[in-house]
Design a protein that fits this description.
CATH topology: Jelly Rolls
Number of helices: 0
CATH class: Mainly Beta
Order of helices and strands: EEEEEEEE
Low-confidence stretches: none
Distance between the termini: 16 Å
Largest sheet: 4 strands, antiparallel
Number of domains: 1
Structural class: mainly beta
CATH architecture: Sandwich
């Protein structure tokens, strides 16, 4: 989905910090600059994890961790902006509770 705008919208699997979801993969032949937003639609605080790298959901390693056990208050938003990613890189996330959505938006540019 090269170009600009919304790239992915996902509601995270709930109830386990180890129930990781693959949110988005940068297309082959492109690099991108992305903003990643976590929106907590619950009144309870959520604990999130965010990984960015070559690994897919469930196989990420510590060097790919951008946010670890970060709290998003009830009805709150947490956002990371200006993240540059190469072709094939993945965004993987998890939440401790139901009701947390992840939105990825940005711009992609061809490498050829």
């Amino acid at each position: 989905m090269a170009g600009s705008g919304n790239k992915a919208t996902t509601q995270l699997n709930a109830g386990s910090q180890t129930a990781y979801s693959l949110i988005y993969t940068v297309p082959t032949g492109y690099y991108g600059v992305y903003n990643i937003s976590f929106t907590n639609t619950s009144s309870s605080a959520a604990t999130i994890r965010l990984y960015i790298g070559a690994s897919t959901a469930g196989s990420q390693n510590a060097s790919e961790c951008y946010e670890y056990l970060t709290t998003v208050v009830g009805y709150g938003v947490f956002e990371r902006t200006g993240i540059v990613m190469a072709a094939g890189a993945n965004i993987v996330a998890s939440s401790s509770i139901a009701g947390v959505n992840v939105n990825v938006y940005g711009i992609e540019t061809s490498t050829s």
